[in-house]
């Protein structure tokens, strides 16, 4: 017997085929079709699946939004990391300048000891160098504080993203 399974019309009796073909309404012909194929629950299943589509679309949109937010957070994290590295490099440059400035102060103090002790010009020069050292020290302290603040923000962002990932994984 050579029956084509993909064509249900092959397994219909002559009367059932006539009834199927003469059915004018689409619903009646599909119900006859499903009756032949022994799928009495198919319309119910199809209705349930159609009812689930809006929920699935909403879940898709929500997942897509969470993905977009996570992508933005990753980009912000990269940006903050670059900014932090730039500040660390700037602080390192300032720290490298500090020994040279301190050396200049020492040289100036030595020259002052050798030259006239009461000279106003030397006092002004030393005060100027000391003020430069203080300025650089305060800049270094500011950079270190900014670095510490950025590290705290980065840790908070990282922790919140970890928690979001855990919540998303938990929901999945």
UniProtKB/TrEMBL annotation:
Residues 151-164 have a biased composition (Basic and acidic residues). Residues 151-172 are annotated as: Disordered. This is Structural maintenance of chromosomes protein 6. The lineage of its organism: Eukaryota, Fungi, Dikarya, Basidiomycota, Agaricomycotina.
């Amino acid at each position: 017997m050579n029956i084509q399974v993909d064509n249900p019309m092959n397994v219909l009796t002559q009367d059932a085929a006539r009834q199927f073909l003469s059915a004018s309404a689409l619903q009646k012909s599909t119900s006859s079709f499903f009756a032949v194929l022994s799928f009495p629950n198919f319309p119910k299943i199809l209705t349930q699946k159609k009812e689930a589509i809006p929920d699935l679309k909403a879940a898709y949109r929500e997942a897509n939004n969470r993905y977009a937010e996570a992508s933005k957070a990753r980009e912000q994290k990269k940006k903050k990391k670059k900014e932090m590295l730039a500040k660390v490099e700037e602080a390192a440059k300032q720290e490298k300048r500090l020994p040279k400035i301190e050396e200049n102060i020492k040289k100036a103090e030595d020259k002052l000891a050798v030259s006239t002790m009461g000279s106003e010009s030397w006092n002004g020069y030393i005060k100027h160098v000391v003020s430069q050292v203080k300025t650089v020290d305060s800049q270094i302290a500011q950079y270190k504080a900014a670095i510490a603040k950025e590290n705290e923000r980065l840790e908070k962002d990282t922790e919140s993203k970890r928690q979001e990932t855990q919540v998303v994984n938990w929901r999945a």
